[in-house]
Design goal:
The protein has 146 residues and is α+β, with helices and mostly antiparallel strands. It has helices at 3-29, 38-41, 78-88, 107-112, 122-133; strands at residues 43-49, 52-53, 59-60, 69-71, 74-76, 96-102, 139-145. The protein has one domain (3-145). It starts with a helix and ends with a strand.
Length: 146
């Protein structure tokens, strides 16, 4: 393995680990009542490098939902929503990206309308993470979606 490949692997591993830890922390800080487990199942993180998803970088909390929820007439499941989000995401072409996501479409309603914590706290976590990668000009974006 070349020095460059070793460096890439190191940053990939660190971002994957950071993402997994932050998603777990977001759920621990969340204040919503879990009725079907689908919102919790939709929590995830993923790392992209140079426009491509890093192999085995998706991290989830676990899969607990046994029934879906109706959303505008369609039955949806949290794990399917997070995977669909990552599959359709258009990453930047140069550098790394770390995404933290709660992908259920009603997560935003729960957070903004009913004022429960879902994933907004990830913004603060990401701000605290930025100095770790500050001198790495290739870590372009650390983003969150709620």
């Amino acid at each position: 393995m070349t020095l460059v490949n070793s460096y890439i692997a190191k940053i990939n591993g660190e971002l994957i680990s950071d993402g997994a830890n932050m998603i777990k922390s977001c759920r621990e800080q969340a204040t919503f009542t879990n009725r079907t487990n689908n919102l919790e199942d939709s929590y995830g993180s993923c790392v992209y490098f140079n426009g491509v998803e890093v192999s085995n970088s998706r991290r989830y909390l676990g899969q607990k939902a046994t029934v879906g929820v109706k959303w505008y007439g369609e039955t949806i499941y949290g794990r399917n929503e997070i995977d669909s989000f990552f599959d359709s995401y258009k990453p930047i072409k140069n550098g790394w990206e770390l995404l933290l996501v709660a992908a259920m479409p009603y997560g935003e309603v729960v957070e903004h309308t009913y004022k429960y914590k879902v994933i907004a706290m990830s913004h603060d976590m990401l701000e605290q993470l930025i100095p770790k990668y500050k001198n790495n000009s290739y870590v372009k974006r650390i983003v969150t979606n709620g």
